[in-house]
Amino acid sequence: MASTQDPPTAPEPDLRVLLTKAHSELATQAHTIALQARAIESAQAQLHAGELHAQNVARQVEAESRRLNAVLEATPVGIFVTDAHGRLISTNPANRLFWGVGQPQVGNPVDFQKWTGWWVEDARRTRPVHPTEWPMARALKGEHIAGEILEVLSFHEPPLPRTVLMSAAPIFDKTHQIIGGVTTVMDITDRMKAEQALRESDRRKDEFLAMLAHELRNPLAPIRAAADMLAMASDESDRLRKDRIRQTSAVIARQVRHLTAMVDDLLDVSRVTRGLVKLDLITLDIGRIILDAVEQVRPLAQAKQHRLKVHTPPEPVYVKGDAKRLVQVLTNLLTNAVKYTPSPGWIQITLEAQDAQALITVKDNGIGMSPELVNTAFELFTQAQRASDRSQGGLGIGLALVRRLVELHEGRVEAHSDGLGRGSSFIITLPRLTQVSADESEAAQAAAPQASPQSTPPKALKVLVVDDNVDAAQMLALLVETLGHHATIEHSASAALARAAAEPPDVCLLDIGLPEVDGYELARRLRAQAAGRCPYLVAVTGYGQEQDRERTQQAGFDHHLVKPADTAALARLLDQLGAKLGPT
After folding, report:
1. pTM for this one?
2. Which residues fall within 8 angstroms of residue 207, CB to CB, at 6 or more apart?
3. Both 228 and 324 in a single domain?
4. The dihedral of CA 109, 113, 116, 117: what is its sign?
5. Which segment of 124-133, 249-258, 291-300 scores lowest on mean pLDDT?
6. Predicted confidence band at 140 (pLDDT cuts at 50, 70, 90)?
7. 282: Cβ–Cβ under 8 A, 6 or more apart, which residues?
């Protein structure tokens, strides 16, 4: 009989295998966790680095923004920025100051309909700027504008007219789309005024040079004609020749005086402008100065048939001044009045004493002045509009010299006119002396320049003339002989020294600009050479300023005459030297 058996069972797993498998799985999980942990740490490090970089970039952006703002705050040029729709984003202080409180505010659109401006460039000069033509408006359409000049009105109350140089450019993003615009505004008003003044100065200079050439040719023409007539006079009768010589010599004398006066005015205005004029201030009766100036102008007034009226108070009016310079001022004003008054006319000079001021008015019924000329009358080279023949003459420097000399006397001068054809008046105001001592009063009565009478030389002098200009030496020698003296001529220093040693002169008239050895050195050698009495040394030179006179004095000269030597002055000097040397 068969026996019943239980079914077989699965073998139980080995515990060590299970443990090994568990360890393996745990190790795998641990490795995965470790990898994930390292990835997390790496990500955290990257994130931290990114944060640090972002913070650094932010700081750099902030610093750059502050630097840009500092530049915008400090720059003297106005700058404003808008977005693509014309809304104002930012503006700097210079721009806000330039346009005023009524300008567009940040955040508001810029409405160019409310802006006022005109073009300055030649092609569009004085045409108003259309709202679409403003540089910013065009920049927002993609145009670059560099340096356009406009006349604009600001938004101040009241608006201020200014001249500006405007530039503008669009701002693009990475896709080259316009996202805004920037405009710069430079105020060039003062520069434009300076350029205009420079152009006006150049114009006056050109007019002055043309006038100078004309004025120099005017006296040279009659001088040349007179010289030709003198050359032709030998064929005429004795009496007719004498008459012609007298007439031509008078013409030459007048024209030389005219040339000399022009040169003197040019030198005076140059010296006054540079502050080189020194006044000899003394107490003066200004009434006597007026009378002296009137006497100098009277022949010119009579030649033009003008009435010359003088009104002065019965009592003296005292000022502190330089007699020669004040006579020069009044003579200049009176001469202008005579020149610019059609014949016959009248010129009036009036003196008034008003408290601490002395008022001198020179008035005429002449051609008058336009308002523009009145405003610029005392500026250098300013001249009235004249006919093409320029018959009145003048260089446009006389009134400038008048103003500067009056200002040196702590006074002022003003011009007035009711318009063209209605006459002119000039008013000089000087500080008046209200307290004057008896001695000052007596000295003032004799202070005005007086002409010295000529006299016959008490002694016929031996005069040595030294000049390398042959014509100048010959004419000066002829003049010396005409005055009753004996003259010899040399043209170099060596020849002059030899002549002085052989024939000792009483007087030497020496030019300064000699070849080889100049007049200063020649004077020193003449003094050293003279064994006994040294001759009187007189410099006859074109250099006539104070420093030139000081230099001739230091070189040993006794006197200084300026070319062309005034005949009366030379005659007086030779008379004085002849009197010192005694009779023959």
Report:
1. 0.49
2. 381, 383, 396
3. no
4. positive
5. 249-258
6. very high
7. 320, 321, 322, 323, 443, 444, 447
CATH number for the domain harbouring residue 233: 1.10.287.130
Beta bridge partners of 84: none
Q: Map tokens 């040294």 to a residue.
A: 534
- What is d(CA 173, CA 233) in angstroms, rounded to the nearest whole number? 96
* Amino acid making up residue 287: G
Identify which has the larger pLDDT, 325 or 397: 325
Residue 507: name the closest of 460, 544, 455 by CA: 460
Our count of domains for the chain comes to: 4
Name the token pair of 128: 């108003």
Helix 238-273 with 189-232: angle, nearest 10 deg? 160
Same structural domain, 297 and 398: yes
pLDDT for 533 equals: 75
Q: Is the pLDDT of residue 391 over 50?
A: no
- Residue 539, phi-psi category: left (phi > 0), alpha (psi -120 to 50), beta (remainder): beta
Amino acid in the structure at residue 209: L
Residues 562, 567, 570, 576: is their CA dihedral positive or negative? negative
d(CA 149, CA 123): 12
What's the rounded mean pLDDT across residues 272-288? 81
The alpha carbon dihedral of 511, 515, 518, 521 has a sign of negative
Residue 478 is inside which H or E element, if any? Answer: helix 470-482
| Short-list 281, 314, 294, CA closest to 444 | 281
Using one digit for the tens of pLDDT, what is the confidence trace for 54-108?
Answer: 777 777 766 666 776 666 676 778 888 999 998 998 888 888 888 887 788 888 8
Rounding to the nearest 10 degrees, give the CA dihedral for residues 126, 132, 136, 141: -140
Q: Please state the φ and ψ torsions of residue 320, each to the nearest 5 degrees.
A: -100, 115
Question: Which is it for the CA torsion 65, 68, 74, 80, positive or negative?
Answer: negative
Decide if pLDDT at 388 tops 50: no
Amino acid 454: pLDDT: 44
Specify whether 408 is located in the same domain as 548.
no
User: Which residue do the tokens 């515990």 mark?
Assistant: 15
Check which CATH number belongs to the domain holding 575 and give it: 3.40.50.2300
Shared domain check, 287 and 263: no
In this structure, of 354-363, 492-501, 544-553, the range with the lowest mean pLDDT score is: 544-553
Give residue 557's domain range: 462-581
In DSSP notation, 144-172 reads: -EEEEEEEEE-SSSS--EEEEEEEEEEEE
Residues 147 and 38: their CA atoms lie apart, in Å, by: 62
Continuous segment of H or E residues that includes residue 187: strand 178-187
How far is it between the farthest Cα atoms of the chain?
A: 208
Q: Are residues 397 and 294 in the same domain?
A: yes
* Residue 456 confidence (pLDDT) above 90: no
The three-state secondary structure class of 315 is coil
Cα gap 96→228, rounded to integer Å? 76
User: Contacts by 46-52 with C-beta closer than 8 Å and gap 24+?
Assistant: none
Three-class secondary structure of residue 116 per DSSP? strand
Handedness of CA 572, 573, 575, 579 (dihedral sign): positive
Residues 159 and 98: beta-carbon distance below 8 Å = no
